[in-house]
Amino acid sequence: MLILGIIGGVFGIVMSIFVIIGGIINLLADEGVFLVVAGLVTLSASITGIVAGVISAKKQDLASILFIIAAVVGSIFVRPFPFVGILFLIAGVMGLVKRPSGTTSKNT
Fold it and tell me: What angle do CA 23, 29, 35 make, to 5 degrees?
């Protein structure tokens, strides 16, 4: 989960910077303000994904929920680039489904 969080976060930061720059260039147009806001929201979702990746070793459930929130928020605001949302969603589902190491299941 750590690797998916870092990769998704870095790609998300790069994409959000491109969206912010595009919004600043089109600031005089109607969509410029929306692009700047979308870029800032995506930047915060990407940072949330990186933070979730860092805390995933100690607090797996919290990190998984943060990953899923970052996936949904990032996918809503930057629809042409779903790659980051997909990475965060995979990491979130993996964290919720994966059992912590050292536990075994008993079939009794």
Answer: 25
Helices 60-77 & 32-55 angle (0-180, nearest 10): 160
CA distance 33 to 51: 27
Distance from chain centroid for Cα 5: 7
CA 41 – CA 49 distance, rounded (Å): 12
Position 103 confidence tier, pLDDT thresholds 50, 70, 90: low
**Dist CA 70 CA 16 (whole Å):** 13
pLDDT tens, residue by residue, 27-47: 877 777 888 888 899 899 889
Minimal CA–CA distance to 57: which of 89, 85, 87, 98? Answer: 98
pLDDT digits (tens, 9 = 90+) for 53-80: 899 888 888 999 999 998 888 888 776 6
How many other CB atoms sit within 10 Å of the CB of residue 100?
A: 7
